[in-house]
Amino acid sequence: MACEGGLKLLGLTVSPFVVRVRMALHLKGIGYEYIEQDLFVKGELLLVSNPVHKKVPVLIHDGKPICESLAVVQYVDEVWADTGPSILPADPYERADARFWAAYADSKLLPAWVGIMWVATEEERAEKVQDTLTAIGHLEEAFRKCSNGKPFFGGDSVGYLDLVLGSQLLWFEALQKMFGVVVIEESMAPHLAAWVKRFGETDTAKEVVPDVDTAVEYLKKLQSHRAGATVAQLLS
Length: 236
Fold this sequence. Notes:
Layout: E1 2-11, H1 16-28, E2 30-36, H2 44-49, E3 58-61, E4 64-67, H3 69-79, H4 92-118, H5 122-147, H6 160-166, H7 169-179, H8 190-200, H9 203-208, H10 212-223
Parallel strand pairs: 1-2
Antiparallel strand pairs: 1-3, 3-4
């Protein structure tokens, strides 16, 4: 990978928000310095770089911080437009549609599966499972629309929406391992189930996404720090 001088990424290995940025940088072939953060005891560099939300990821380019994962992925795609494949679609409508579904994945799907891990009762968990499956149903239809019969949301190759949803797959595995919850069931979402297999075989996923046991161990750590925090807060 071509190493960009002064490019740093503040992150957390198991954070889906960080994973998508790392995958974007990998797709573009951009080298960077990765600095793991302890979100239980946030360091000075993170607090100075993102004083508003105090969250990861933060991409520091030539001394200037860029925050919020979706904004960072778009920044990477625009700054290194001539390096590697495009991440966002070129067509304005397709680009807007990809952004819409990416926002949906983060605002509807992600809070639902986070809730599965964090609720206090089985009744609440069942409700969050249903919310998760409803969101997956909408994304199944989105895949059929966005992919146009091709292997990925981005068409023939991994694109913006692939990164956004693909960054959450690690935690779907953790949910199955810890709670027996299958988020993407082949009988209910056949297109997404096939996409999961294809995405997992890409070099981008293999290089960036950590082992599911890493996520499970981190969740156990989170569970011992429940008071005053949420999973979402401690993943970003």
